[in-house]
Each structure stands twice: as C-alpha cells, then as structure tokens.
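Morning run. Coffee first, then this:
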Amino acid sequence: MNVLEFASKFKWLGHDGFLVETEKTIYFDPYEISGGPTADLVLISHDHFDHCSPEDVARVQGPDTVIVTESASAAKLSGDVRVVKPGDSLDFGGITVEAVPSYNTDKDFHPKANDWLGLIVEAEGVRVYHAGDSDFIPEMNEMNDLKVDIALLPVSGTYVMTAEQAVEAALAIRPKLAIPMHYGAIVGSEQDAVRFKEALAGKIDVMILQKA
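And here it is:
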C-alpha cells in the first residue's frame, strides 16, 4: 500500500497517542481521550501516567481487546495483557508487533534498564515505528535495516529528544514518512514539530497531524 494512503488512516490523539484504523483498530499510548472505536490492539510504551492510562484504555477496551506492553504497565492493566521486552515479536493474524528499545541517553527519566518499548507494527505491508519516550539512541542507526515506512518520533525535548535530535534520528532510520509527536500536552509545542519538518525538507517527508 502507498505510505501516504496508509497514513490517512492515522488520527493523532495528542501527545504520544495515535489511533490507526487498518485491518484492526490499533491504539498507541492513548491518553486524555474521550472515547473512540473499540480497540483490537492497544500498544503501550511504558508506565508513565501520560502513556499508560488505565482509565483511557478502559474507554476503548472491549472483551476481545489485546494490550501489548511492558511489565510495569501490565501490572496496572486488566484483560488480555501480553508482556513483551525489546527483541520480542507477536503476530495477530497478519499484523505483527515488534518491540524495540526506547530510553534516554543523557537524562534519567527513561532508563535503558527498564526495558521500556518502542514498537514496530506491520499492517497492510506498511511498517510503522512508534519510538515511545526515547532519545536518539544507538539502536536507531540499525533501523534502516528494519525498513520502517512511517516513523512516529518525539520532538519536544525535556523528557525525550529535541526536534534537532529527532532530525538526526529520522536521517538514521530513513523512513518514507516521519510524523512528530510528544508535544502540545505535557511539554513542547507545535513549533517543535515545525522545526523538525523544516529541517528535513528535501530529505524526508514529514506530516504534522492536527489533534483529532
């Protein structure tokens, strides 16, 4: 499928949250949402309140919803919860979920030892990478081999990489399309997303989504 066509299935829920309505209804890190279609998959990167929000998960959780996350978040959630760590992968009838590292390199908010998650989802032949709350980490230099089509990258700084560091990350990962996130809620503003897009002009396509 054409990457831009697939990207039209995305809704940015604010902060690091996304809804993707493909073969299955997939949520990434839902936070401060009012509801939405019932989830087939909820993917949660780590257990900070603005990523692992049990009350928000409950708003879209049905009896058959599967939650994929790491162990600290799993302890806060109920239902069909699958615990993964970086290096693990799961298959959901044609949709695959791969867990990759996500951590800070120059700050202590997201330690590497916690095994918190970035997540790569493949659906309809398109590979989507949600970086979680990460800095530009060495593992991103190897992600070109993982053939990421769409990269969701934080840009706000403070707890994650800055817009300028996210540019470096995007150039290392080489997605066909990058979408900035992690701004407009806790820290960061749309200006961070704009700086990210402007710096990648002519190098990598960037789509700034408006909050749904």
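The longest helix spans residues 163-173. Good start to the day.
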